[in-house]
Amino acid sequence: MSSNGRVRDTSVQSVDRAVSILQVLAARGPSGITGIAQSLEINKSTVFRLLATLEARGLVEQDSERGRYRIGYTVVELAGGATKGNDLSLLSRPVCQELAAATGETVNLAVHDGEAVISIDQVISSAAITSIDWVGKRTPMHATSAGKVFLANMPQDEADEILAQPLERFTPHTVTDPARLREELESVRARGYSAISEEHEIGLAALSAPVRSLNGEVVATVTLSGPTFRIDTRTVAGLAEQLVAAGDRISWRKGYIRRG
């Protein structure tokens, strides 16, 4: 057999064993590495390696206190196509917690409803100086970083319809000119995230990156917000890199195909 043939056989075997692990978890519920290995009669190091890959894609989740694994939310989405907001919150929360801890800023997960943005989950870093609860609040598309991500990724006719309406000015920095907003949306698409400063509230800056579903549609945004003296031209690039990576991780956990 050629070396290429052996690689293909090994890859197929890994896929087969990964599916078997999911079947064991579906049938038996939360299980540890030893129990799974005994059920499948394979060594624990192989089970550990496969579980790590499955966990990275959101197909399994680990109970950190007990070290047991259970079926992840990506399996639920693949099986039933369900994309409820509360499922998305649970799926993304570990990533949002890590981002908040790493940056020291508040992290929100938001979806859009018509012409508004609604925050569905929030993680406040212990280093944050404020603790405004944004969950459940409706905010405008044109004056928020999350809204601009949605506008930049929705069909052009839908975005044009929103921008054609009277746009409220919340601060002296709010952009209300449709032509200028369209230019900003081009930049958002090009760099993969949106950044605003004091457009919705004086003293508040925010960055948002997209969260994509299995078919590539932007179904949510992950947002990093904090005071303008911390989120400014000196720090935006580094924060944006971490934010986009977090958005990518949540997207992968939802089943979005990783490229490259």
CATH superfamily descriptor of the largest domain? GAF domain
Count of distinct structural domains: 2
Structural category: alpha+beta
> What's the order of the H and E elements?
HHHEEHHEEEHHHEEEH
Show the helix and strand layout.
Elements: H1 3-28, H2 33-40, H3 44-56, E1 60-63, E2 68-71, H4 73-80, H5 85-103, E3 106-113, E4 116-123, E5 138-140, H6 145-153, H7 156-163, H8 178-191, E6 194-197, E7 204-212, E8 218-227, H9 236-253
Antiparallel strand pairs: 1-2, 3-4, 3-8, 4-5, 6-7, 7-8
Helix pairs in contact: 1-3, 2-3, 5-9, 6-8
GO molecular function, one term: DNA-binding transcription factor activity
Domain HTH iclR-type: 12-73
Domain IclR-ED: 74-256
Report on this structure.
Strand 3 and strand 4 (116-123) form a beta hairpin. The protein has helices spanning 3-28, 33-40, 44-56, 73-80, 85-103, 145-153, 156-163, 178-191, 236-253, and strands spanning 60-63, 68-71, 106-113, 116-123, 138-140, 194-197, 204-212, 218-227. It is α+β, with helices and mostly antiparallel strands and 260 residues long. It is elongated and about 65 Å long. The longest helix has 26 residues, at 3-28. It folds into 2 domains: 13-77, Arc Repressor Mutant, subunit A, CATH 1.10.10.10; 86-254, 2-Layer Sandwich (Beta-Lactamase). Helices cover 47% and strands 19% of the residues. Helix 1 (3-28) packs across helix 3 and helix 5 runs antiparallel to helix 9 (236-253). This is Glycerol operon regulatory protein.
